[in-house]
Amino acid sequence: MSVLPIDSLETPRFCGVPTFMRLPQATTLEGLDAAVIGLPSDAGAPFRTGARFAPNAARAMSIMLRPINPYRGNINVFERMRIADVGDASVVPGYIEDSLARIEQSVSTLVEAGLTPFGIGGDHSVTLAELRAVSRKHGPLALIQFDSHTDTWDKYFAGRRYSAGTPFRRGTEEGIIDPAHSIQIGMRGSLFQPTDVSQSLDLGFDVVTTDQMFEMGFPALVERIAARVAGRPAFITFDLDFVDPAAAPGVQTPEAGGPDARQTLDLLRRLKGIDLVGCDVVELNPMYDPAQISALLAATVLAELMALKAETLS
Amino acid sequence: MSVLPIDSLETPRFCGVPTFMRLPQATTLEGLDAAVIGLPSDAGAPFRTGARFAPNAARAMSIMLRPINPYRGNINVFERMRIADVGDASVVPGYIEDSLARIEQSVSTLVEAGLTPFGIGGDHSVTLAELRAVSRKHGPLALIQFDSHTDTWDKYFAGRRYSAGTPFRRGTEEGIIDPAHSIQIGMRGSLFQPTDVSQSLDLGFDVVTTDQMFEMGFPALVERIAARVAGRPAFITFDLDFVDPAAAPGVQTPEAGGPDARQTLDLLRRLKGIDLVGCDVVELNPMYDPAQISALLAATVLAELMALKAETLS
Amino acid sequence: MSVLPIDSLETPRFCGVPTFMRLPQATTLEGLDAAVIGLPSDAGAPFRTGARFAPNAARAMSIMLRPINPYRGNINVFERMRIADVGDASVVPGYIEDSLARIEQSVSTLVEAGLTPFGIGGDHSVTLAELRAVSRKHGPLALIQFDSHTDTWDKYFAGRRYSAGTPFRRGTEEGIIDPAHSIQIGMRGSLFQPTDVSQSLDLGFDVVTTDQMFEMGFPALVERIAARVAGRPAFITFDLDFVDPAAAPGVQTPEAGGPDARQTLDLLRRLKGIDLVGCDVVELNPMYDPAQISALLAATVLAELMALKAETLS
Amino acid sequence: MSVLPIDSLETPRFCGVPTFMRLPQATTLEGLDAAVIGLPSDAGAPFRTGARFAPNAARAMSIMLRPINPYRGNINVFERMRIADVGDASVVPGYIEDSLARIEQSVSTLVEAGLTPFGIGGDHSVTLAELRAVSRKHGPLALIQFDSHTDTWDKYFAGRRYSAGTPFRRGTEEGIIDPAHSIQIGMRGSLFQPTDVSQSLDLGFDVVTTDQMFEMGFPALVERIAARVAGRPAFITFDLDFVDPAAAPGVQTPEAGGPDARQTLDLLRRLKGIDLVGCDVVELNPMYDPAQISALLAATVLAELMALKAETLS
Amino acid sequence: MSVLPIDSLETPRFCGVPTFMRLPQATTLEGLDAAVIGLPSDAGAPFRTGARFAPNAARAMSIMLRPINPYRGNINVFERMRIADVGDASVVPGYIEDSLARIEQSVSTLVEAGLTPFGIGGDHSVTLAELRAVSRKHGPLALIQFDSHTDTWDKYFAGRRYSAGTPFRRGTEEGIIDPAHSIQIGMRGSLFQPTDVSQSLDLGFDVVTTDQMFEMGFPALVERIAARVAGRPAFITFDLDFVDPAAAPGVQTPEAGGPDARQTLDLLRRLKGIDLVGCDVVELNPMYDPAQISALLAATVLAELMALKAETLS
Amino acid sequence: MSVLPIDSLETPRFCGVPTFMRLPQATTLEGLDAAVIGLPSDAGAPFRTGARFAPNAARAMSIMLRPINPYRGNINVFERMRIADVGDASVVPGYIEDSLARIEQSVSTLVEAGLTPFGIGGDHSVTLAELRAVSRKHGPLALIQFDSHTDTWDKYFAGRRYSAGTPFRRGTEEGIIDPAHSIQIGMRGSLFQPTDVSQSLDLGFDVVTTDQMFEMGFPALVERIAARVAGRPAFITFDLDFVDPAAAPGVQTPEAGGPDARQTLDLLRRLKGIDLVGCDVVELNPMYDPAQISALLAATVLAELMALKAETLS
């Protein structure tokens, strides 16, 4: 199996069943450093649904992306990091807890084989399953969360404990997130309760709102992230609604007033030296993405996270 | 509270928050014969999701419809049958069994107050909840099912028992459907197993495929339905994928090769003298209905079922 | 000015600003037998609006059509009938009566120059303006109306007399329609009042519902039309909602249960020997026509009416 | 009647017929401080039409919004200000002057009962009707207009005086706007005449173009607004085309080159101490809003105006 | 490599990168009877372009289809015929002749390995490349063409010989089609020249127009096809514009007035005993298929052709 | 022939077949200074296709634009520069080299008659044809290219030399571009090879990436452009993917992270004193532009280039 993607200067991008960035589809995990895995569950979506179609939507636009990253010294990401597309975890529509169990199992297989998982959600509940799998190997994780919502509510409809709004409270309770080394970035918009943001502080997270992010500037923010994480094994979760709906209309719960795509990518490209043991891009909803710009941005974000990881490999 | 809908010759249809056919929104159940109720659960959808938005999509196009039914002697449906829109049942995303329980409770409230429920799904799993509620009052029900699939499978993903593909096996097992007086109409398309259709026969249902339906003709089919039901309390469930995708693109699991809208309405308008104790239109998915023709057809079908019921009232 | 359209075997259809069927855009009326004219008013629309964009939407798809009509003896329509696209009448948004006056004036210019107008609406109110212009030359007209609604209501919102729902009552009152030689075909669906259909009979029209149309068959219907018109100067108005929404989703007031495109074109191709002094296709709404099939059908209907006319020219 | 909206942590947002922010639908005006009212007229639209569907489109996305406003001290807007959704004013399609009269009457009912109206247009002509109603109680109003166009032209097509392009000249002529205390913000783009902007200065308005707005910065702009209004009863009209088409594609007359959503909300959140006696968001056109981001932004803007008002109530 | 597709009762259809009907993606041709191959060239499109995205669009909806065909004795197609998805041929955008050469080479590889190719176009020019590849093994082929156009024109723009409008004249000239045993079915609509249909007769083809097809009825038509083919190695090419645009809006050159999906599938299911050595479905254009019904129909047609072939295998 | 566009205060914008900015459609080139010409070739598109429909899509939204440019001293562009819309060049689908030849010929006709061409692409390959035509009169041209990609690759699929990715290498080789006076602005995103950007430097171009553009600021950038061009005859080519996909979703190869519309227009409005001998806006793809904001921006950019030119005319 070749470890390099198909050359888009020879074979047009629209030819072939699209894997992420035209990477080989894995038939074995041997020899791999990392894997792209789709996590097509939208069972946790409190409003718009359809994120089950997100992994393939992201793949379809990821074929626009190329292997060399000029923002990190023109490294060829795929020469540094052997990575394949392993397809999707299976899920159980209508049964969120079963779905999380299936996802956890699929991601665990990757982690146990020594691979770094690059997940494509799915609604934000899938991150809990990933954290469970990754923390089993790496212990309580430093979480770096880009998101317009904290997702640290306690319960949703009928007192149920699992949804896209609760994963980071659950993860803290389960001891798989280390909130003292975790940070949430991008909160904004109206609130259910005055405590919507402070509840994360109460759990031990650091929180930077969208307004605070722009006030401090990206260099300061990047330093604050690095200080918070303090070199520990980190998981980056990128909820696409961190970005303004103009740049990412196709999300589950859009929130007006976020950064644009250029600002977002600039911020990610400034991150350095994170010990990235897993990451995901979640909440892409292709039902609301007629021009595929949200899918392209989601794929670009994941590719930037790959470069962040690849840079730390020799 | 007026029992008549808003007059669309005086106030344009686009004015106001749309209820079904611009009916009054119920503030009490007193004095009502029937109620329209939305059942916005898509937790059971094995493929496309989004039927949670169906009740409001059907309402939005139902405002095209008018109270007089020329196919049943120019009766004014709303003078015969006092009916209101009671809004939607609540559901629990990600927890199909909780969602069915909430739906059952909401429909039970209507049935206990003596109202005939006219449901707007939601995926086909919601019908199980309705049947539970209605049968509690009327006993095992004669089911008249228009559908391209039997929905009598036993289990789905991970061996789970509740989904859009299992309600009529569950209903038979629970004793709330009387299969000996029930009939499924419209099956077509490729099969998972050779038993996909015969499994319904094994459960005791009568089954008429799309091909058989056209071979026998509608007059014979209507007689067969009447003979099967034999005057018992009947529940009509209309899965919008009974119709060809050209006329109803906005469904969860489209199946090419069905009847068109004219044929469908002609068939429904020929039904007579059913003791209708409940009914629904399900599987509308507005995410795939850019011109709203599926929503219009779903609303028209429900309005024809109202006329069928109203005709039996004096 | 050439009287023949651009050759689509030489210059691809997508090249150039589209006129109807790539006809020359008129710079003079001299030497012309007929003209295509856009009537972009949607001031009369009681529900969906947007028909102001219909003339150009029909033009954009009309470029698919070719000059030879095999259903009328392979005649080359444009060799028989010299016709150009004269652009659009101007209108006054928000002022329906002004808009009708401007349309009447534009159509009158054509009629006075001896041209047969082929109009592209616009909502159905525009037909009243056309009838006023055409009848000034030809006297009270035999109207052949294909439509799912009678459009013979008296008044709409606030007692106003002009709308898409009233043109044929107004036309009868004004003496520009001769109802004794007119026929309305295709009525169906639910009614505001039991009199929605009979009001046309009371005005003197013949009425054939969709159900009656299929019961009698097209040969009998064509004879009934011919007998009714009795050789008098006739105006054909084709409301696109005559057709089922599956084939024409892009209309102002869709009505489920109509004929499909094949049946519709078959009916039109059977018409013979009408003394056609004007015609239109109305109620196309491109806002609800994502795949442009409604626009293509509207253009095809107009092209068939051109062939009907051309056949009578030597 | 409860004065608090439905709790979206208990009942999912997609359940129920959507009112603005899930507020109660008013059955009486008693006890209310304010009301949301839809103004679904697009009779004044000179180009794209469809704003008649805007009020319900804004309602459908407003259910994303929550009652606590963190930008104004975490106030619960609905505990401070008792507000309900009163549905829509009725209109008369095709008759803009009748439509304005109906809107004026509906808004007057609210104002006379002591309520502050929060309008959802409709094209910009509806603001004239609101200003007539509100000024009857409060006298000539200080107008704060966010818009990319001045809308102070004199006449449109056929010399007609009412359209989306003329309301603020009419309002000045009618003495219901006090231009000396009014300000127009956001003008940009190409012009019909060199006087398109200066005509507003000639009428007495202050005008700040988009370029000037960014040059002076928001703190200075907010001061300039406050100084201009000088504590008088003020009406804020927010034309959604103030925003760049990337953030608000669904408008009637888009103008490239405006502020993004974050900038727009930042500006509104800086406004303080306005004596707000009425306001609206207009020109939303859902026909061009496939991902509903324009509707979400329109709803968010209205919610921010509610918070601005609520902050001044004790 | 398993020869059976993924079980959609165990793993939801939306999980995984979609191959045709969830078949295994071939890593070798050994042991296979047939192959699905995408032919993503739209270089020959004279009007709408975008068929390059068709193979993946058909795959995405093909996952709705199941292995048992009840119209041919409940056979399990994939137990009878070992088939895999081999991905797409490569093409050269802007160079149609290079593209055809690449396609011919890819299909030849399949044919030489003894596989029956099931192609997914691409515009109709791709069929010429397939015919070249297949005829090299089987000699001049009996062509069964379902299409609304003959595609036997001689030259297009600038006198160029290759386009979607010329493949069957080229194929006849090249001796790879045996017109005396070939038949074209479904021609309709307006013509460029009176000879558009007769030119096929002149080349030696049998031609059945849409009107003639309905006049003779499907049993007679099926006999006529069988008699024409006379047991020779046959290639079926199915241009999706054979179907009415209501059922297949997403095509390159739609032609109003064709059969609906039920009629189309009924016709294909009646075909028996064809010695099928290759086939394709072409002209699907996903750019005009917002609800994916054209893609579903294209996939269903290809699945029916698989069943036709599988029935002849033991 | 009037040289002024239709007055949109008298005749609504939606009336009439749209030419660019409602300019007269040329029937002669005499007396003209410039011409708008559509270049509808997408034969060079390596990924998304559909730019063949771009010229008419840009025309349809250009009707929003008005003749007075307030950013250049309120000049009336059309009084300074007599300009007409000459329609589209013809092309040969599937034959990119023939298409370029036809385009070159059409543009040459304009240039030879002394007109400045304002082209609307089409994919970026069309610019090569324009440069050939313009340089024949003006010699090697100073190229000012706004683009997210350099388009200076050597070969694409099958070693072919013409595509949207190669025009500026070809133009340099052919001696029609003077790279020493040319500049490429806006490069960003991932790369095929580390040399993707440096290959332009190797050819002699100056290159400014998106990041560099924002670092230096627009005043410095404008000076750098002027210094580079040094007063020579210049051609501006504006690839719409220079802009962020949020503002221009409808392009062939979107690249996340570009400037927004306001920044883009601000930059263009700062350009002064260029000896503009030709220009174009390319890569607009209306298939991915549901709200027409990309088309509006493309039209606005072209209008700004007209103002830039008009300013230099007396």
Automatic annotation (TrEMBL), chains A, B, C, D, E, F:
Binds 2 manganese ions per subunit. Belongs to the arginase family. Agmatinase subfamily. This is Agmatinase. The keyword NADP does not apply. PROSITE patterns: ARGINASE_1, ARGINASE_2. Mn(2+) 2 binds at residue 124. Mn(2+) 1 binds at residues 147, 149, 151, 239, 241. Keywords: Hydrolase, Manganese, Metal-binding. One of its GO terms (molecular function) is agmatinase activity. Its cofactor is Mn(2+). One of its GO terms (biological process) is putrescine biosynthetic process from arginine, via agmatine. SUPFAM superfamilies: Arginase/deacetylase (SSF52768).
